[in-house]
Specification:
The chain is built from nine helices and eleven strands. Helix 1 runs parallel beside helix 2. By secondary structure, the protein is an alpha/beta fold. It is elongated, with a radius of gyration of 19 Å. 36% of the residues lie in helices and 22% in strands.
Length: 248
């Protein structure tokens, strides 16, 4: 298998920031703009498309609604190839101290996009998601990531527990996060190569995935809330890792 699966079908990416990043970083077939739109940022994007040789078409706003599958497209949709997934090993190659984010069954595309944006911002080497019962890369994910998807490396694996075992064989520590774990997240050592595993909405870590973790930890909660949204939890842990690594 190549490092990236072939890009075989077109897909719509929408939102001014997401489309601008796509035009800069990947092949775009054409960009569709809503007729009559006068947003200055949109006009700047149109100029960028023309400078890059990307065709711009103008269509009624209802047509963009259909292309994007939503009315929240900021009057612009890019038609481009699906971003390819990488294989797990590619995320580890060439990194002495890789930092991976692993998502166990996150089904909400908005949550996946938010985690991707945080992971890119924190300098993580990649994101790992399962092939089944989880959100994949889509226009909704691209919009939620607000341009960060174009900078992200995402691996999709058929069996998450097996992928974690493979990761451990490469000398990477696997830390799982779930409410109620006795160890607190800031007590872990993130200065070593590590993969941070977060459970999906409501269900948390699956049993086999939890058992594949070297250690499990929780984020301390002081109020009445029993758990955090997965994108918030990922941000808390990732920036603890950033803090520790910046001091090593």
């Amino acid at each position: 298998m190549s490092k990236q699966e072939s890009q075989t079908r077109s897909e719509a990416i929408y939102g001014i920031h997401a489309v601008a990043e796509a035009v800069r970083r990947r092949p775009v077939e054409y960009v569709v703009v809503a007729q009559g739109a006068a947003n200055p940022r949109l006009q700047q994007l149109i100029g960028g498309c023309r400078s890059a040789g990307v065709s711009v078409r103008f269509e009624p706003r209802a047509a963009l609604d259909r292309r994007a599958g939503t009315t929240h497209h900021q009057d612009v949709v890019a038609i481009c190839a699906v971003k390819g997934y990488e294989v797990l090993g590619a995320l580890l190659e060439g990194n002495q101290k890789p930092l991976l984010v692993v998502l166990d069954g996150v089904e909400d595309p908005a949550n996946l996009g938010a985690v991707i944006r945080t992971a890119v911002g924190a300098g993580a080497n990649g994101i790992v998601i399962p092939a089944r019962r989880a959100a994949g890369l889509s226009p909704t994910v691209a919009r939620a990531a607000a341009g960060a998807l174009e900078h992200a490396r995402v691996a999709r694996v058929p069996n998450l527990a097996r992928a974690l075992a493979e990761t451990k064989e490469r000398g990477v520590w696997v830390y799982g996060f779930e409410p109620g774990a006795a160890t607190l997240h800031y007590a872990l050592d993130y200065r070593e190569p590590c993969a941070l595993v977060f459970g999906g909405e409501g269900g948390g870590l699956h049993r086999l995935v939890g058992e594949a973790c070297d250690r499990r930890a929780s984020i301390p909660l002081r109020g009445a809330v029993q758990s955090l949204n997965v994108s918030v939890a990922a941000a808390v842990v990732l920036y603890e890792a950033v803090r520790q690594r910046s001091q090593s």
